[in-house]
Amino acid sequence: GLTLVALTVDHRLRPESGIEAAQVAAWMKARGIAHHILTPEHAAHSPNLQENARQWRYDALADYCRAHGILHCLLAHHAGDNRETVHHHLARGDTADGPSGMAHTRNYHGVRFLRPLLTCERADLEAYLRAQGCAWIDDPSNRNPRFARVRSRATLAEDATLAASLD
Fold first, then answer.
1. Which DSSP string do the residues of 10-65 spell out, in sequence order?
2. Which of 60, 61, 132, 151 could be stapled to 40 by a disulfide with Cβ–Cβ 3.0 to 4.6 Å?
3. How many CB atoms lie within 10 A of CB 165?
4. 72 contacts 112 by C-beta, under 8 angstroms
């Protein structure tokens, strides 16, 4: 009795992002899944581009969900994303309440964001997608060392002991 709707947020921060969003729309259409591309306005909340993009993304998702009576929005964050978040918080000294990562459930502007993949490793997700014959798009921003999260990712990839300690 549930209806599945896929949402892609195109921040329009890279020239190829519109083409990538259209590709995702085509993949969803081929699977009979309703899909919508969201293009949020860019009102900077901070000098941190990734923080702004996250805010724009969450706001766009919540706005769409509220406008369409959707209570639950599933996000695709995985275990590696969570480790990066914990490492990033530790590196910033954001540990007043102890190191913390992403919540499995977060209420945001009247919408419940759920992260059902937080216990899954990216490599396992990729293997599953390959086995299903699915393709995906890797955002090149996720490899740009100018961003603190990318530097956290690189540190964790180089230090398995540190990565394991953040689980």
1. ----STTHHHHHHHHHHHHHHTT-EEEEE------SSS-HHHHHHHHHHHHHHHHH
2. 60
3. 12
4. yes
Distance CA 9, CA 141 (A): 15
Give, for all 167 residues of the chain, the pLDDT tens digit.
Answer: 788 999 999 999 899 999 999 999 999 999 999 999 999 987 777 787 888 888 999 999 999 999 999 999 999 999 988 888 888 778 777 665 656 788 999 999 999 999 999 999 999 999 999 999 999 999 888 887 887 777 777 777 777 777 677 77
Cα 33 from Cα 64, distance rounded (Å): 17
Between CA 9 and CA 155 the distance in angstroms is 28
Q: How far apart are CA 136 and CA 91, in angstroms?
A: 30
